[in-house]
Structure formats: structure tokens, C-alpha cells
Amino acid sequence: MRASLLQVAVNEDESVEARRLRVAGMVRDQAGADLVVLPELWTTGAFAYEAFESEAEPLMGPTYEVMAKAASDAGVWLHAGSIPERAPDGPLYNTSLVFSPSGALAAAYRKIHRFGFDQGEAVLMGAGSELVTVRLPQTTLGVATCYDLRFPELFRGLVDAGAETFVVPAGWPERRRSHWTLLAQARAVENQAFVLACGTAGTHAGVPQAGHSIVVDPWGEVLAQAGPGEEVLSVGFDPATVAGTRERFPALKDRVLGLEPPKRH
């Protein structure tokens, strides 16, 4: 299986419309890949909070239309990153879109863990509540977004739902890049799954981005990692490695669930 992670540069001197069309062209250039992945909030920038309201769009809005066509033209499964979605009932969500090679919407995921510690995304957007998996011919994807990477229980839930490959679009800041790599490897090792984590390059509202998109195998080995700038990271991997790893080293079978909280003494 071949995946292409498009580490898009998000800069303020490019309009959302221009970037949308440019990225669609990048997707089309990946014809022949099995899966293409875009970053989080690449239309606006993950830290461009003031743009969330003005650039929010319906689920089936401009980005949906352009990315559905790009997926169909390239004949690829496309995780189109995430958009600021304006739901019919009013709230904004950080919503990921996954398209099949026909251009049909295969899944949408509203980010569960919002970043900001009572400011920014945490107050401007609603929280999702549903885990999302997508069955591809070669593997089952578990979908998460950026800050979700810090919450292992979400990934355990995705494993229980059948996930073998985690896809994590992000707008991760450069100042915490070491966490990005560490957490991607941890989620791979503890769940014996592939991790495809696609970040942005450039600067969002004055916040330099980490870039360094990464692909990690079920043993925690880094198969490929991008640099800091805009880049296409293309890597081949064998999804059957997941079942083989879980069979040879069946740590997931030793999980102990439902533990009682500690007693006070």
C-alpha cells in the first residue's frame, strides 16, 4: 500500500480559495497512490482563530466539492484534512472529510479534543462525540486530529472498533515538535498499528508550524519523516504487518479493563 502525506504550507499571503485549488492539484498529482492525506485546517490555518468564523463552511461546501473532484480525478482514497465546519444548528466544528476513489464522502469526523485550555479552538468550536473508522480494501483507518494524539484512550477505542492504521492530520506548532514525534511513535507501539501523521508547514497567525509529517510502523519504527517545509511524503507499507505484530507479540490481549479507583488509606 502506498500513502502520500501532503505537508501543505499555510501562509497568510495566499487566499483560502487559491490554496484550495492549489492543493487539489497536489492531490491529482498523487494518482497511483492508494491513500492521500492532508493536514488539519489547511484552508485557514489551525491557529488562525479569527478566521474560523468567516471561513467556516457547510460540510458539503466549497472544500468538499473541490476535494471530492480531486479524489475522483486521482482515483485515490483521500483524507482531505479538516475544515472549520458550520453545522446546520449553528456551532462550528473542526471536521475531517474522507473520500473514496469515486469522490463519494466515506466519513466525516468532528474533532473530539479541542486545543486551547479554555481559549482559541476550545471555545470557538464544538466537540465531536463519535469515534470514526473507515474500511479501505487494504486496511481499516482510525481517524483522529492533532490534539487527539495526546489522549491514548481515544486510540484504544479506535483499536476496539477495528482500526489498524491511524491517520492524524495536524497543525502542530514547531515549539512542541519533539512531542509530535514521540506521541506518534507511542500511539503506534501501544496499539500495534501504523500511524500516518500529516502536519502543516508555514506559519499560522504568527505560530511557526512543526512540519515533520511522519509514518510509523506497529513496532514504533519511523518509516519516513518529512522536513520543515512544504513537502510530499510518499511511503509504501504493508498493512498485513499489523496482524502479524499482534499475533507474534499479543500485548493487547493482556489489557485489564474496568479497574477500580484506588482506595484512600
TrEMBL record:
SUPFAM superfamilies: Carbon-nitrogen hydrolase. Coiled coil: none annotated. It comes from the Bacteria. Transmembrane segments: none annotated. The keyword Aminoacyl-tRNA synthetase does not apply. Keywords: Hydrolase. Residues 1-239 form the CN hydrolase domain. This is Carbon-nitrogen family hydrolase. It comes from Streptomyces composti. The lineage of its organism: Bacteria, Bacillati, Actinomycetota, Actinomycetes, Kitasatosporales.
